[in-house]
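Possible race condition, two jobs.
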Amino acid sequence: MPRRVYYRISDRPDGRFDAIVTIEPDTVVRRDGFDSLAELEEWVDGLRVLMAALGAPVSRADGAETATETAPTSDGSTPSGRLRTAR
């Protein structure tokens, strides 16, 4: 069964952007520091190609987030799943 993959864009105070990608059920990948939305969208297009080859279409998150996707625990880890920062 194909996994659902979705992303959301986060604005940073320094004017740059981050992409947060969730691969269900429990993997979150964060790519920090895009200089522009165009650069971020280009990266997402590449992600779409890669995930389509695996049978997992990518869609933009609708803004309804769960606490486990974004809120780290007191030790900095995510409550369930794995957080990976892409560089």
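Job #2 (started ~2 s after job #1):
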Amino acid sequence: MPCLTILTNVPRSKIPTDFVNKIMPLLSRVVGKEIDKFTCIISGDCQVSFGGESTKPGAVATLESIGNLNPQQNRVIVKELSDFLDKEINVKPDRFFLSLYDVPSSNIGRFGDTSEARLKLSIN
């Protein structure tokens, strides 16, 4: 269950209402997982500063996934997400910071259980 969380100082009123729907196909393509596995959250009106500058649009984000993250793939993901944020909410690549985490399935919970437990049940 990959999850992208974006915090930005862009006003909520300037974030397209269909932002999360538009980013989902991109996430699915660059991470290599089905769209129905993704969660995306964007929160506007946050206080964000890059090098002491907080008046220009900026964003910080985390992408967590069970697998499909590695140094080569991460470069593609960062580039694609940077381009998308520039186009959709005017956050330039030099004002976007993304942390990527390849998370063990035992550290992800959904449906009242961890992914690891559900994977074991589906195998048996």
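The chain is about 35% helix and 25% strand.
Logs attached separately.
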